[in-house]
Design brief:
22 helices; glycosyltransferase activity; globular; two-stranded antiparallel sheet; about 0% strand; mainly alpha; DUF2029 domain-containing protein; MptA/B-like
Length: about 550
């Protein structure tokens, strides 16, 4: 058995030999003969539909994606028409939104068509990921323009400035890079290795925005590739079907949009982290520590994984003394490497501030942010200091996350170390006051590799991915204020996405089964029966 666990204690495993049912669950071998052989599925249909959706997003991105002011693209006649004419912006908005939702449906249908998760399913998932990624690799940045800030931070390093001390607003002509002005004064939250990479990109491209975006996408693609390789391997260590885990973690549209189209450096962070955890789970602890350290050097949040690497290294029957010694050794190796890594370009240990001094504020769709808003409103209505109470609630939730991490570090089955790691990561993200759409992708690969059941667990993932795809479709659109539109682009995208979501939930005979069982007439009968039962109970 490996440190990460074998067929014990995971969400999808059962004792003894087993076979998969059409729902993706496992049955004992004795029950298998009663199952009819699964029908042949035309998997390529879902793959081609997803490719069409990604292609629509590529075209739509030209009119509503983020193009840097210094890009020669903005002088091309087709681009000008799609970005300055009402019809062009409207068409681009609809294409981008429908394409994203079609990609969502294709992901769901791919899972349904591969419901037996047989021996060729892994190949089918990899083909789908490749086909859906290709148009997004060439698209104008969508759903975020952080990738342009990476170029600015690379320029800072090249010019001898410290990104941990100053923002990109200190650069000459920084606005032409395409970065969001709201972040121009902020210090970088990234690790030294990513700053090395950003400097290398700028050195190769001369800070030309379009070529820089492509290179940053290729860097993110390395992270995607690492996930494609190691998520199935990590899943199989836990008795989980690798193809299904890869479909959940990497083929989902939020992953592909955030890590390919938006080129977030989180892709490389997650890829290195997954690879590092796999190496540690297969008892190659030093390699695991170094890979996780490389992940920290991209974005420091994965420092959270080190204690769980130490749990695996300490071993099954380790005493508390050995555990603390191994935790110290794990942290010592990682931090020593990072300290040496700060010597080039005089970066030092500036990355530590990203952990110690998080971004202030909250997002309204995070559990902490949403609950805080409701508490603040209720407090103000009652004449209480609502804002203060809301701040206390958010602070309490952050401390609760720290408490859960400590609990999972010190308590739990050794064979479930990777599952404990996944839950700790999820707690830190979900109880934080600030959640960006791609933050949930930090822990989903680890949950997928240790088991996400075909019940409320997978439904929560469907809801989360759909919500953030819909949110991103209407929140991050680049539209000039002087363009005259019958309906503003954000509202058009939101309505389009909601209509498509309604189609998936109610009208589509295939996808509606995933969240709500039965036919619409059955829902009405169940609802009416519930009303009658309530009336009888009150008599």
């Amino acid at each position: 058995m490996t440190a990460g666990g074998s067929h014990i204690g995971t969400s999808e495993s059962v004792p003894g030999p087993s076979k998969k049912t059409a729902a993706g669950a496992e049955l004992p071998e004795a029950a298998a003969p009663a199952l009819a052989p699964p029908p042949k599925r035309r998997v390529y249909i879902a793959t081609w539909q997803g490719f069409l959706g990604a292609l629509m997003m590529f075209v739509g991105s030209i009119g509503t994606g983020w193009i840097a002011n210094g890009s020669p693209m903005i002088r091309q006649p087709v681009v000008i028409a799609l970005r300055t004419e009402g019809w062009g912006v409207t068409l681009s908005t609809v294409l981008l939104t429908v394409g994203a939702m079609l990609l969502m449906r294709s992901w769901l249908r791919l899972g349904q068509r591969l419901d037996d998760w047989g021996e060729h399913s892994l190949r089918s998932v990899v083909i789908a990921i490749s086909a859906w990624s290709l148009p997004l690799l060439l698209a104008v940045p969508i759903f975020s323009r952080d990738v342009y800030a990476y170029t600015g931070q690379g320029r800072l390093v090249m010019e001898g400035q410290n990104p941990y001390a100053v923002g990109i607003s200190t650069l000459n002509n920084w606005f032409a890079l395409g970065a969001d002005p709201a972040w121009a004064e902020n210090r970088t939250p990234y690790g030294p290795y990513f700053l090395w990479l950003a400097r290398g990109v700028v050195e190769l491209t001369g800070a030309q925005p379009d070529v820089s975006v492509l290179l940053f996408r290729l860097i993110a693609g390395v992270g995607v590739l690492l996930c494609v390789i190691y998520v199935p391997k990590l899943a199989e260590l836990h008795g989980i079907n690798g193809a299904r885990a890869l479909w959940i973690a990497v083929a989902n549209p939020l992953f592909l949009i955030s890590f390919v189209a938006s080129a977030h450096n989180d892709a490389l962070m997650v890829g290195l982290a997954v690879a590092g955890v796999y190496f540690a789970a297969t008892k190659r602890y030093l390699a695991g520590i170094l890979l996780v350290t490389a992940s920290i050097g991209i974005k420091p949040i994965t420092v959270l994984l080190l204690p769980f690497i130490g749990v695996m290294w300490a071993g099954h029957a380790a005493s508390w003394t050995r555990k603390f010694l191994i935790w110290g050794a794990t942290a010592g190796i990682s931090f020593a490497v990072l300290a040496v890594s700060g010597i080039p370009y005089n970066l030092g240990l500036g990355w530590v501030w990203a952990i110690m001094d998080p971004t202030p504020g909250y997002t309204g769709y995070s559990p902490s942010g949403f609950l805080g808003q409701q508490v603040e409103f209720l407090g103000n209505v009652l004449g209480l200091p609502g804002g203060t109470i809301a701040d206390l609630l958010r602070t309490g939730m952050k401390w609760a996350a720290i408490g859960l991490v400590l609990l999972l570090m010190f308590r739990g089955d050794y064979s479930r170390a990777v599952r404990r790691l996944a839950l700790a990561f999820a707690a830190v993200v979900m109880l934080s006051p600030i959640i960006q759409p791609w933050y949930i992708l930090w822990f989903v690969p680890f949950l997928a590799a240790t088991g996400i059941r075909n019940d409320w667990q997978i439904r929560c993932l469907y809801v989360g991915v759909t919500f953030f795809v819909v949110f991103g479709a209407q929140d991050q659109l680049s539209v000039w204020s002087f363009v005259e539109l019958a309906i503003d682009a954000s509202s058009l995208a939101f309505v389009t996405a909601l209509l498509f979501t309604f189609y998936l939930l109610v009208l589509d005979i295939h996808t509606r089964k995933l969240l709500i069982e039965g036919k619409p007439s059955d829902w009405a009968r169940r609802g009416w029966r519930w009303v009658l039962d309530q009336r009888r109970s009150t008599r």
